[in-house]
């Protein structure tokens, strides 16, 4: 059985939870208190020297970290990761987009608003995150007006990677009313067999 070390409110951890539930794989969840400093303890750093969640412990006692790397590991050989090279590369393309152009802004804006309560000292940063986050949402909207999912008509881990923080973007102050294709896509993801919500 896999063991996941994570925080239920973390989008990156939710990716792993959602993937495991979609696959119907049993796992043990070990809560980690980020704000309480639990990712900086010697025990945690022995699992992930980068001091971040999620961490996936395998049955042989070894560990994997970085959410999108874990997604690729779990989805390998399943319907959620295409075998055809071009499609597989498009999945990676969206995963890299999520990590470099989406998550750093939408997740940070959410952290400042949802976790910290919009402190005045971070308002300039928050506004910067908002601007860049909307730019990322616009890129997604353009794709999703053409296809049902991010890689054509098939639900893949590209969708899981980007769904995690997009579906809670409102907690970072983002208004999705002007993104109808994204809102439809969010509904399609939530209809997948085996779907589980972030806090379910």
Question: Any overview of this molecule?
Answer:
Helix content is 51%, strand content 8%. α5 packs across α7. The chain contains seven helices and four strands. The chain is globular. β1, α1 and β2 form a beta-alpha-beta unit. The two termini are 20 Å apart. With 200 residues, it is of the alpha+beta class. The longest helix is centred in the middle third of the chain and has 31 residues. A four-stranded mixed beta sheet has the order 2-1-3-4, covered by helices on one side. The protein has two domains: 74 residues, Glutaredoxin (3-Layer(aba) Sandwich); 106 residues, Glutathione S-transferase Yfyf (Class Pi), Chain A, domain 2, CATH 1.20.1050.10.
Taken as a percent bin, the fraction of beta residues is: 5-15%
CATH class category of the largest domain: Mainly Alpha
E-strand count: 4
Fraction of residues in H or I helices: 40-55%
Structural class of the secondary structure composition?
A: alpha+beta
The name CATH uses for the topology of the largest domain is Glutathione S-transferase Yfyf (Class Pi), Chain A, domain 2
Average pLDDT number: 97
Number of helices: 7
Give the terminus-to-terminus CA distance. Answer: 20 Å
Q: Which segments are poorly predicted (pLDDT under 50) over 5 or more consecutive residues?
A: none
Order of helices and strands: EHEHEEHHHHH
CATH architecture of the largest domain: Up-down Bundle
Measured on Cα atoms, how large is the radius of gyration?
17 Å
**Overall geometric form:** globular
Q: Within the largest sheet, what's the order of strands?
A: 2-1-3-4
Domain unit count: 2
| Major sheet | 4 strands, mixed
């Amino acid at each position: 059985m896999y063991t996941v070390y994570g925080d239920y409110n973390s989008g990156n951890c939710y990716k792993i939870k959602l993937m495991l539930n979609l696959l119907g794989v049993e796992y043990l969840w070990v809560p980690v208190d980020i704000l309480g400093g639990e990712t900086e303890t010697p025990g945690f750093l022995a699992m992930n020297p980068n001091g971040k969640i999620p961490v996936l412990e395998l049955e042989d006692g070894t560990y994997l970290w970085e959410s999108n790397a874990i997604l690729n590991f779990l989805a390998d050989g399943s319907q959620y990761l295409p075998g055809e090279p071009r499609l597989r590369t498009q999945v990676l393309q969206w995963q890299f987009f999520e990590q470099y152009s989406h998550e750093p802004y939408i997740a940070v804006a959410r952290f400042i608003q949802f976790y910290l309560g919009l402190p005045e000292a971070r308002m300039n940063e928050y506004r910067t995150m908002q601007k860049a986050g909307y730019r990322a949402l616009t890129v997604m909207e353009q794709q999703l007006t053409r296809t049902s999912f991010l890689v054509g008509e098939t639900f893949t881990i590209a969708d899981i990677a980007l769904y995690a923080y997009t579906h809670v973007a409102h907690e970072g102050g983002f208004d999705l009313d002007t993104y109808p294709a994204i809102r439809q896509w969010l509904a399609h993801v939530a209809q997948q067999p085996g779907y589980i919500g972030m806090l379910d």
